[in-house]
Design a protein that fits this description.
Blueprint lengths: L2 E9 L3 H12 L4 E5 L6 H5 L1 H18 L1 H4 L9 H12 L6 H9 L3 E4 L2 E5 L2 E4 L2 E11 L3 E3 L15 H4 L8 E5 L3 H11 L4 E6 L10 H13 L3 E4 L3 E7 L2 E6 L3 E4 L1 E4 L3 E3 L25 E3 L2 E3 L10 H16 L12 E4 L4 E6 L2 H6 L4 E7 L4 H6 L4 E7 L4 E9 L2 H14 L3 H5 L11 H7 L3
Parallel strand pairs: 1-2, 1-6, 2-3, 6-17, 8-9, 8-14, 9-10
Antiparallel strand pairs: 4-5, 5-6, 7-15, 11-12, 12-13, 16-17, 18-19, 19-22, 20-21, 21-22
The structure holds flavin-adenine dinucleotide.
């Protein structure tokens, strides 16, 4: 049992926590960086990177299947081992974080593998050791997959993102509970590898928080590709017998070889010792101010602060938090122009408010909508998609936008600039849009604002 002194302890090294520990150490502070699993967190090992490797591979397969539409004949034979090898060898080093640990230590931080728990103001315990941090403690514990309380589900060997991203071979059939971004991306990725996929969504539509037009677009493509999508259903029970899952819904049963549960995430707050600093360990998220302060000598960032469970949010917050600890001036947190992308095909990128959110906020809303297929580039590519703009008509600026379709996440870049910098829509209308690009459809959507 040893008591150690340092400037800062960082508990949890997801993308944001790792960046905070690295930057503070580089700035000369004495930093103790604690993680009980893998340095880098969910994104590189069980999230963004491996899932996007699946999507890249499945998109290539789909392009191959479309060769007869454009350029001759094709005979596409998927081989999952290429994906499994790439995830294991290139993305995750076989789920080994030594490179990330070395990077952290090279930056000057002290790395401690173990479960960190606050035991009082500015004090953390890891195993038998105690760390007293003169400046304070940073919390970046992230989230874990959670499963809804469905009868029988907990007793079955269902997959979460942590299992499905490690599979060495694909099953014949897969049921996916949850039609959010993770469920939708992995459903399509698996389907394009020949897996018979059923998506089960209790809400009225998949990709529920997106614009309804985006949900319909993706649902239609899924239907066209043979992915069964069930929405607005109640799941009464799940069982597993003889190597098969049986999911009982209101009027029917789904039988599948594997089951992926992608129906929400739980903040890792229960075993952090939050009660020792007057915070509620049962809370769904940690409240922070615009400088990421959760209390005296306490900061938090990432998924647990509830401003969007995205790597770019965690990284954005890390820079603000580092400035605050170092006493540097700079912009504080502003989520008006928060972009996010669901990497289905069509890709759904959106920023800021949806039309409904803007109307609920009492804004005088004008909406512009255009079908990407009717643009020159969309027609050439035989691509599907849409651009939807949400304008605060009183101020004449966009407060939200969606770019769904080929490169939707890339088109989103210019729309994010518009929302972030509050570029007047009149200025956007006066721009020149290169012909024939996908982003030229933004001009049509601007003309449609009404
Ligand atoms: C399948 C999937 C796909 C995704 N795709 C995208 C995407 O395309 N784009 C995107 O922006 N985001 C994506 N995300 C979300 C993204 O992974 C997270 O938002 C991101 O990892 C940021 O999380 P975080 O910084 O809060 O912490 P996390 O990445 O969750 O890391 C938290 C770390 O804290 C550690 N920890 C927790 N408690 C303790 C403790 N008490 N002591 C010590 N260590 C502890 C954990 O071991 C973990 O390493 C995806 C997520 C999933 C699951």
């Amino acid at each position: 049992m040893a008591t150690n002194s340092c400037d800062v302890v960082v508990i949890g090294l997801g993308p944001g926590g790792e960046a905070v520990a690295t930057e503070l150490a580089k700035a000369g502070l004495s930093v103790v960086a604690v993680d009980e699993r893998l340095v880098g967190g969910e994104c590189p090992y069980f999230g963004c990177i491996p899932s996007k490797m699946i999507i890249r591979a499945s998109d290539v397969l789909e392009e191959g299947r479309r060769i007869p539409e454009f350029a001759g004949e094709s005979d596409v034979r998927p081989d999952w081992s290429e994906v499994a090898d790439r995830i294991r060898d290139e993305a995750t080093d076989d789920w080994n974080d030594q490179v990330a640990v070395d990077r952290l230590v090279d930056a000057g931080a002290t790395f401690v593998r173990g479960h960190g728990r606050i035991i009082g103001p500015r004090t953390v315990q890891v195993g038998d050791d105690t760390y007293e941090a003169s400046k304070g403690v940073v919390l970046n514990p992230g989230t874990s997959p959670s499963a809804p309380p469905i009868d029988g589900l907990a007793d079955t060997p269902y997959w979460t993102n942590r299992e499905i991203l490690r599979v060495e071979s694909v099953p014949g059939s897969l049921a996916v509970i949850g039609g959010g971004p993770i469920g939708a991306e992995l459903a399509q990725g698996m389907s394009r590898f020949g897996v018979r996929v059923t998506v089960i969504e209790v809400g009225e539509r998949i990709l529920g928080p997106e614009e309804p037009e985006s949900s319909k677009l993706v649902a239609d493509v899924f239907a066209h590709e043979g992915i069964q999508v069930l929405t607005g259903v109640t799941i009464s029970s799940v069982s597993y017998d003889d190597g098969r899952f049986r999911i009982v819904l209101d009027g029917q049963e789904i039988d599948a070889e594997k089951l992926l549960v992608a129906a929400g995430r739980r903040a890792n707050l229960t075993d952090l010792g939050l009660e020792t600093v007057g915070l509620d360990p049962a809370a769904h998220s940690l409240e922070v101010d615009e400088r990421m302060r959760a209390g005296e000598g306490l900061w938090a960032l990432g998924d647990v602060v509830g401003h969007g469970a995205f790597t770019h949010v965690s990284m954005y917050q890390s820079a603000i938090l580092v400035r605050d600890i170092l006493g540097q001036d700079g912009p504080t947190a502003d989520y008006r122009a928060l972009p996010h992308v669901t990497f289905t095909d069509p890709e759904v990128g959106s920023v800021g408010m949806t039309e409904k959110q803007a109307r609920d906020a009492g804004l005088n809303v004008r909406v512009g909508l255009t079908d990407l297929a009717s643009s020159t580039r969309g027609w050439i590519a035989k691509g599907q998609g849409l651009i939807k703009l949400v304008e605060d008509a009183d101020r004449g600026v966009l407060v939200g936008a969606t770019a769904a379709g080929p490169s939707g996440g890339e088109i989103l870049g210019m729309l994010t600039t518009a929302v972030h910098a509050e570029v007047p829509t009149d200025t956007l209308k006066s721009m020149i849009y290169a012909y024939p690009t996908f982003h030229r459809a933004v001009e049509s959507a601007l003309k449609d604002l009404s």
